[in-house]
Write a structure and sequence with these properties.
With about 260 residues, the chain is of the alpha+beta class. The chain has helices at about 20-25, 50-60, 130-135, 135-145, 170-180, 200-210, 235-240, and strands at about 10, 15, 20, 30-35, 65-70, 80, 95, 100, 100-105, 110-115, 120-125, 155-160, 170, 190, 195-200, 215-220, 245-250, 260.
Length: about 260
């Protein structure tokens, strides 16, 4: 597998109650992460009806009909999602080759990973320590590649999550992650006097780079300590419980949903 570009730290721009990915915006995409001002967009902290209304309102604001979601289980399954599911499948990654579809994953310290190729395919993954150690980012890229995408034409954005400033793990988890990731765990896990730091940003960037992704943007924004009013499970005592939404979509000019042109 070819080696992709080194990741570039690029602060996501604040637009009202959203953080927006500059790298993906340059491709004409709606791509970013919600702040607490949008409310909780999923999880037990919000009623299902309230969370669904919040997601629908966000979708309409961005120019889409609704948010396409899955039942996240901290795994590595990736599914194709061309429209909202009647029953959400269990998965932590989803992709589509259709315009007019807004994909989303919820998170409150886990990493939202947004991916697009220049031919029009888009994907999103939810990667906490479990999903990261199970290589869900690589699974997402592989699923898109199997549909005809070329990694040398891909742009990936690693969104706000718990940062290496605030995330230490115990020896049992260190051993498990090292067993799953092998050499790709060497740089993301660093021993300190306070314990082992697990850098989710560099871990997922390493996986994307190993798959040959051409451009990797890292928001470098910690949900716990950035001060940007983001939901954080580890700061729940002062913030309360809630989930933000990482989202990516390509707007349909005619208001409908259609597949992108095949890659040449």
């Amino acid at each position: 597998m070819s080696v992709g570009a080194r990741p570039q730290v690029s602060a996501w721009r604040r637009e009202g109650d959203l953080l927006v990915s500059p790298a993906l915006e340059r491709l004409g995409l709606a791509a970013g992460f919600t702040t607490r001002a949008r409310g909780s967009l999923g999880g037990a902290a919000a009623s299902p009806d309230a969370a669904a209304r919040a997601r629908s309102e966000l979708a309409r604001t961005l120019g889409f009909d609704d948010v396409v979601r899955v039942k996240q289980v901290h795994g590595d399954r990736v599914v194709k999602a061309d429209a909202p599911f009647a029953v959400w499948p269990e998965a932590d990654g989803l992709w589509t080759d259709r315009v007019g579809v807004l994909l989303g994953v919820t998170a409150a310290d886990c990493v939202p990973i947004l991916v697009a190729d220049r031919a029009g395919r888009i994907g999103v993954a939810h990667a906490g320590w479990e999903g990261t150690s199970r290589s869900v980012a690589r699974r997402l890229v592989a699923a898109m590649r199997e549909s005809g995408a070329e990694t040398r034409h891909m742009v990936a954005a690693i969104g706000p999550s718990i940062g290496p400033c605030c995330y230490t793990i115990g020896p049992d988890r260190v051993a498990l992650i090292r067993g799953r990731l092998g050499p790709l765990a060497d740089d993301p896990i660093r021993e300190t006097p306070e314990g082992a730091v697990f850098d989710l940003w560099s871990a997922n960037a390493a996986q994307l780079r190993a798959e040959g992704v051409a451009e990797i943007e890292v928001a470098g924004t910690c949900t716990r300590s950035s001060g940007l009013d983001l939901w954080s499970y580890r700061a729940r005592d002062r913030m309360g419980l809630g989930l933000g939404l990482g989202f990516i979509g390509r707007r349909a000019r005619d208001g409908g949903s259609a597949p992108v042109a095949p890659t040449k």
